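If you are new to this repository, start here. Below is one unmodified record pulled from the training split, so you can see the exact layout before writing a loader.
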Amino acid sequence: MLISHSKHLLSFQKPAKTSRGEYLEKPSWLINLGDGVIHGTGEASPLWDLSIDGNADIDTVLSLLPDEISESDFLSLLESWEPGTNCALPSIRFAFHTAYLDYKSGGTGIWVNNDFTHKKVGIPINGLVWMNTIEAMEEEALTKIKQGFRCIKFKIGALDFDAECRLLERIRSKYSAFELEIRLDANGALGEDTALEQLKELHRFSIHSMEQPIRAGLESMEKICRESSIDIALDEELIGIAPAKGKALITRLKPRYLILKPTLLGGLDLCDRWIQVAETVGCGWWSTSALEGNVGLFAIAQWVSQKPNIPYQGLGTGALFMENFPSNTEIRGEYLWRK
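And here is the target side for that same chain:
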């Protein structure tokens, strides 16, 4: 197989803010695998502050790869890039794996054959409200609800906690839990000593779940998962861990949900292994994009579309960028559809 790549800079239409900071732009690499006639494409789009390869010299990594590689050597390369190895490069592995799926399916960009890719059904997604001023967040949430979203996810944790509670109270006064599912994502911003009390306060707003309430790796996460009045979903906690070792972690922490981000976890096949872990320990899951461009987003959407009884997914980020790769998807109401 022939290997080539190109680098692109994706600029945000407005700053994408989380409790860790904000993104103004991010690099993305398109990976091509082919035989001179057919080629498949994947996208490597690491996050500088979150991906374990976010600060890797990806240009150098890619430049050192051979121009041509046998299939067996390629599969060995994928194995060497898995989380938990000395050469772990999850975002690159995700890109090469999806490029390989595309290439083996004829290089059309569509490697799943189902009702989603045939434009018959859409994937249910949440409406994401990025961190901003309280007023701007409320306006964005109400706009998304009017657009048809019945699941809204708020990024919280960096603003005044009482103000965030009042925001949720106003939203909930207009829309009951039967009308609107509310998810929260703290990105690890809650205090280790105060998280349980804050979760108790938030519980009165009928919250579906809280993603990553405290920083990953803290011993108190086990107690929080056990005693929280809101179901806990783990996100950053999974980064850098091989699914085989993750089973012991999830068995110990006992979260209600896992958040699967293929770019951060190393690929769609590794996310399948995480789903097996989730099923073994009896917890649910959903997928979320990690600010990929449209190539990566469509790959995740195809993968998710194969799963049965999927809940709301976090896949509506493609419109964040001023200039993006050509899109195969569009949002209609609360669903992501193939164009």
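Two things worth knowing about this chain: The chain has a mean pLDDT of 95. Residues 90-104 form the longest helix (15 residues).
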